[in-house]
Amino acid sequence: MSAARPLTALRTLAVTAALPLLLTACGYGTESTDSAKQPEVAANAKKLSVDEVNIGYFPNLTHATALVGIQEGLLQKELGGTTIKPSTFNAGPSEIEALNSGDLDIGWIGPSPAVNGYTKAAGKNLRIISGSASGGVKLVVNPEKIKSLKDVKGKKIATPQLGNTQDVALLNWISEQGWKVDAESGKGDVSVVRTDNKITPDAYKSGSIDGAWVPEPTASKLVAEGGKVLLDEADLWPDKKFVITNIIVRQAFLKEHPDVVEAVLRGSVKTNEWINANPEKAKAAANKALEELSGKALPADVIDPAWKSITFLDDPLAATLDTEAQHAVKAGLLEKPDLKGIYDLAPLNKVLKADGKDEVDDAGLGVK
């Protein structure tokens, strides 16, 4: 396949969803940390084909499958004596870099960095092997300045980063309203202000932005500050589902250690099943993990509405990833990519079939 130019703003790999801030759906920053909880390995547990597997994720709610799976020992249980070495990231680019360097084997990540990482490497390094979460993105506005969707014109709306998943979604929505915005500068009928989610609530309180198209829990933080949800992005998608978090793997690791990849996927499937069967316990487990990672748990008025807006599932919703990539092309941030081969869902479907669950589809974008 021919290599596509990555997201224009992302020439330095500055994207995600990916997937925003220390405690959001698409964390941003440049650093990673190994302060994540080290899972306990049962005595005499049998190792798989490798002693240790390096797993990465963001300390945010849309990565709760990883947060809860590690916190509750559900991932480690499937890996037996093979130890999880967890690392948390605040940015999609740094996670992709870790994957490319071999420091990371498997990771939870948003759609934009997955697409960008795949195209930048000409399809030779990563594969998406599962879905993890859908939803959790909202347009929250100052109700005194914006009372209806048409009032967004002429206002300042924040997104986490130029070219990231939410930025592309907002640019596409603006275009569908018939308004014009220069994607690179953010100037036009709407002023798109790229703002790190760590400071978006303060920007909102100061009045320097009129609203934000952001993931959870940033959206609920803004609501706690008096903002109003004007639009839930889920309402723009068929069946109200769109991918916000994928699971990716290094192709070399998948080839060399398929048993480990399959074990991680079993753990992910079982974790999502447990989350959906025990939403309150799962929410508490996710918040405990966030507290251990950041030193501060999310308050109830933030985590409760944020948690309700996220759906945890195994289906990667491949057709929506393709649509999101098309939106980036339409916005002028991405040259038309060849995404065929970005998915390898055979290991996941093997796990799902063994568990009596329906297999999932790659929308024609699977390995040939």
Describe, in plain words, how this protein is organized in 3D:
The strands form 2 sheets. A 7-stranded mixed beta sheet has the order 1-3-2-4-11-5-12, with helices on both faces. It has helices at 64-71, 74-79, 92-101, 111-120, 165-176, 200-206, 218-224, 251-256, 258-277, 279-294, 300-308, 318-330, 346-354, and strands at 32-33, 52-57, 83-89, 106-109, 126-135, 137-141, 156-159, 191-194, 211-215, 228-232, 243-250, 310-312. With 368 residues, it is α/β, with parallel strands linked by helices. The chain is globular. Mean pLDDT is 89; it is low at 1-31. β7 (156-159), α5 (165-176) and β8 (191-194) form a beta-alpha-beta unit. The protein has 13 helices and 12 strands.
Topology overview:
Layout: E1 32-33, E2 52-57, H1 64-71, H2 74-79, E3 83-89, H3 92-101, E4 106-109, H4 111-120, E5 126-135, E6 137-141, E7 156-159, H5 165-176, E8 191-194, H6 200-206, E9 211-215, H7 218-224, E10 228-232, E11 243-250, H8 251-256, H9 258-277, H10 279-294, H11 300-308, E12 310-312, H12 318-330, H13 346-354
Parallel strand pairs: 2-3, 2-4, 7-8, 7-9
Antiparallel strand pairs: 1-3, 4-11, 5-11, 5-12, 6-9, 6-10
Helix pairs in contact: 1-9, 1-10, 5-12, 7-11, 9-10, 9-13
What keyword list fits this structure?
alpha/beta, 368 residues, single chain, globular, 13 helices
Q: What's the N-to-C terminus distance?
A: 12 Å
Unreliable stretches (pLDDT < 50, length at least 5) are 1-31
* Rg, Cα atoms, Å: 19 Å
With strands numbered from the N-terminus, the spatial order across the biggest sheet is 1-3-2-4-11-5-12
Which percent range fits the helix content? 25-40%
Major sheet: size, sense and barrel closure? 7 strands, mixed
Shape: globular
Number of DSSP-assigned strands: 12
Overall pLDDT: 89
Task: Indicate the proportion of strand residues.
Answer: 15-25%
Total DSSP helices: 13
- The structural class is alpha/beta
N-to-C SSE series?
EEHHEHEHEEEHEHEHEEHHHHEHH
